[in-house]
């Protein structure tokens, strides 16, 4: 491929990343303006609504974030009285999470999807496209001069 056309192609790809990142940021701004919570907090509320009494470990797994990050987000929501922690009657070591009425109201007024527009869009892709995209992104990440793998465990709205 000629140098000029490879340069043009890399710029076209760069523009697509800008569209993705900008659209994601716009969605999270809308969530925060409408609901008063961040995108990651909204997703947490949705997961607790879907599975009352969920624990922090399972919640972190569902959001694909580190457990300590999830714990910090949960504590902020507890402090805002959007989540309550309850010990299991069967196993006092287990703490489950439940929504308050205020949190349910936030979910009802929230612009969807709660998990964010990028995870939703990725879910709609065929498996072959996801595999190809994953392979290409691994190659791209390998070319980065500065790389922080810890960011993989953070929610996009918290970057």
From TrEMBL:
The keyword Nucleotidyltransferase does not apply. Residues 6-146 form the HTH marR-type domain. SUPFAM superfamilies: Winged helix' DNA-binding domain. One of its GO terms (molecular function) is DNA binding. Keywords: DNA-binding, Transcription, Transcription regulation. This is HTH marR-type domain-containing protein. It comes from Sideroxyarcus emersonii.
